[in-house]
Amino acid sequence: MRYGTGPLANTPTVVKNLVIINAIMLLVKYLGKGQLLGFHMDTVLGLHYISSPEFKPWQLVTHLFMHGNFWHLFMNMFGLFMLGAPLEYRWGSKRFLMYYFICGIGAALLYMGVQGWNYHELALTLTPENLALVKSQGPQAMMDLYMGGVGFDNTAMNDLAILLFTDLVGASGAVFGILVAFGMLYPNAELMIFPLPIPIKAKYFVILYGAYELYAGYAQQAGLAGHQGDNVAHFAHIGGLIVGFITIMIWKRRLPDT
Q: d(Cα 81, Cα 8) in Å, to the nearest integer?
């Protein structure tokens, strides 16, 4: 019998393949400078709000395989690798993969619900003509803003353009679902979390991290100091925690071996 010696040799099938696929997608993105077959990868595969001209249904899945940069990928895949493997060994590959996508897609839907609230609030301040202008010229206005320009002359129009044409990428929603599952199934497992100098039990880490994400999401929405310009999708993280928690509770009732 031969045993593998690579870093993924003894990793269960789904976790291993998810890590590999995500790494390949980022490599392709880097090599193509964000382009693939003439398309901008984040625009086509990243998730956009449902009212955006850029929205496509497949983005609910494909955004889970796109990442902004190496560190974004590394943090998500490290969490998947460390916490996902015990879950896949416990549940089996089929149930683990189903749980991964339930959490990832559920998190995206909750995030889009928050976007829907923001869209409604902004749309109330604009005329139908301004709404149509944002949808047709929003990308150009965003580019102008990023280059230091003013975009549209109307702040609400700029905010709406950012909402409609900023893509959501990353597996964070699914990984946060894995985090809450690990905390529920292995509550007393001790985790070493940088920069904490002492181990912390998984159940406490999940509670503290969830509380932080809830605060950060609120602060981001409220525009509190220190959170303006925060590009982290905190409500997607919260969505992963919520959907994961609900899924585990349902499974515990229906599937005794969860």
A: 9
The mean pLDDT value for 83-108 works out to 96
Cβ–Cβ under 8 Å, residues 85 and 14: no
For 16, 30, 226, the CA distances from 20, given in Å and listed in that order, are 6, 15, 35
Residues 107/245, Cβ–Cβ less than 8 Å: no
How far from chain centre, in Å, is Cα 215? Answer: 17
Q: Which residue has the tokens 């880097």?
A: 30
Give the start-to-end residue ranges of the domains of the chain: 13-254
Tens digits of residue pLDDT in 120-179: 999 999 999 999 999 999 999 988 888 888 889 999 999 999 999 999 999 999 999 999
* Cα first-last separation, the chain: 31
Quote the tokens at residue 147. 């280059």
Say which residue the tokens 């109330």 belong to. Answer: 124
- In this structure, what DSSP letter does residue 166 have? P
**Token pair belonging to 100:** 């991964």
Say whether pLDDT at 3 is over 50. no
Cβ-contact 49, 129 below 8 angstroms: no
- Return the structure tokens found at 30: 């880097």
